[in-house]
Amino acid sequence: MNVNLAKHPSRVALDAELRRAVAARGLTRRVHMAKSMVSVREAAARSLRARFCLCPTGDSKGLTGRFYFSLLHACIPVRYDGWYRGLNQSQLALPFRHRIDWDQAMINHDPRMGGAALLARLAEMPDAELEQRTAYIKAIAPMLTYNTTAPMDAAALVVEQLEFRIGALQKAV
Amino acid sequence: MRISSDPFAPPSPCRMRVFSYPGHRALLQELLGRWAEKSGIGGHRCLVRDEAVCQQSTFIHGNTRCWTAELPIWYALTTKCPQVARPEDADVFVVPFLWGMATSIFWGKYNGGGAQSRTEGRALIANASALFQGLRPPHPGTQTWARHVFLSTLDVEFVPDQFAVNNTLSRATVIHLGDDHATAPGLPGRCRGKLANKCSADKMREWIQKHRMAGNDLVVPYRLTPGYRLAFLLRAATLRVRWPASLHGLLLGRGLRQADALPRPPQRQRTSHCSCL
């Protein structure tokens, strides 16, 4: 967990819950709990090393840049909605649903279940599922970058999605 | 939405005929030219791409800040799709004004360029209503307005409130960064959008919900790569540049292999965090 706690009070609560749960499970060496934001380079190195990257909502209710940053580093993003809106996967505004199975690419944790339940869920995830999710993330990562020289980057998928939408509109007329 | 049968297949070539309003296009080109010149990053291309010749250290926040995804999208729309000169021939009308970029590119001072230029973005946004007045679709019906595309790769709460209050514009397609809410913590019932005039939180919220339900918005990822350095390691793998030797083992562990040796790009000063975290 590498976040600015000041962005939202729910982050402070989550941080405290997780610290307790991590200590109780004896996982202090396996869970990084930053006291403050680390540098980009360190964040990148830690994300590459990590299986899961916690992505709590902040002052924005949606997704933060951290969510995409985690995906690009093959670290499974764990969304934690500190605004307690109770949104399921299909209600979230996520890009490229025609291409990406977001159920595979991320974990959307219900914050009402608390930090301890979250830690248990992640710690007990079977290795096979972990491998499968990580492989999937690596496969979709190029779709989430803006690289105009690549055949299938985010910008190209926007064009594709727009073309679908315009086509549907024209058929409807 | 159903996932396509082959989600990893490259997209088909674009056949959608694109019209972009000439007056806006000229304004955009002028703005890009000015931004490129003021920043000293090495020309227009460096606003879209990150090449070895681009000087990225001139900005505190980098030229490809997380809110500037619309520039590569605009670039893709105007290079991958057929362009038409007459609006009557168009499938889609792109309004080339970069809300996110105008908002954020000059946040913070830049080196060597003199004074801070944040006000430029603010002034642009404040005068943006002129853009809406300049739109002249050939058949100004609902369907035609729905084929107007606005690039506003900001959190949806920062989308200009003209979209919420104008009956025709509210049907347009808006490309933004996704789910958000028109209020801020500690400001219940008040609009957070500093860029919008007299914006009403309730009206914005209602508009966002309607817009989403009608499928009139396209959600895109934050712009983190290639120019912005947050994801530079993945970029190293996909764009075939070197990564730091100290991280070699980690990358291999993730199945990311170093491409064959390529000339190492010049070292540049790393910019600060993206504020969108």
Write the layout of secondary structure elements.
The complex is a heterodimer of chains A (173) and B (277).
Chain A: H1 9-25, H2 40-49, E1 52-56, H3 65-72, E2 76-80, H4 102-105, E3 107-109, H5 114-123, H6 127-140, H7 154-172
Parallel strand pairs in A: 1-2, 2-3
Chain B: E1 18-20, H1 22-39, H2 45-48, H3 70-80, E2 92-95, H4 99-104, H5 118-126, H6 129-133, H7 142-146, E3 148-151, H8 162-165, E4 173-176, E5 183-184, E6 187-191, H9 201-213, E7 217-219, H10 232-238, H11 248-253
Parallel strand pairs in B: 1-2, 2-3, 3-4, 4-7
Antiparallel strand pairs in B: 5-6
General description of the model:
The complex is a heterodimer of chains A (173) and B (277). With 173 residues, chain A is mostly helical. Chain A has 7 helices and 3 strands, in the order H-H-E-H-E-H-E-H-H-H. The model of chain A has no long low-confidence stretch (mean pLDDT 87). In chain A, helix 1 packs across helix 5 (114-123). Chain A is globular, with a radius of gyration of 17 Å. Chain A has one domain. With 277 residues, chain B is an alpha/beta fold. Chain B has one domain. Chain B contains 11 helices and 7 strands. Chain B has a 5-stranded parallel beta sheet with strand order 1-2-3-4-7. Chain B has a two-stranded antiparallel sheet with strand order 5-6. The two termini of chain B are 28 Å apart. The model of chain B is unreliable at 58-63, 108-119, 184-199, 225-244 and 255-274 (pLDDT under 50). Classes of the chains: A mainly alpha (173), B alpha/beta (277). Chains A and B meet through helix 2, helix 3, helix 6 and helix 7 of A and helix 3, helix 10 and helix 11 of B.
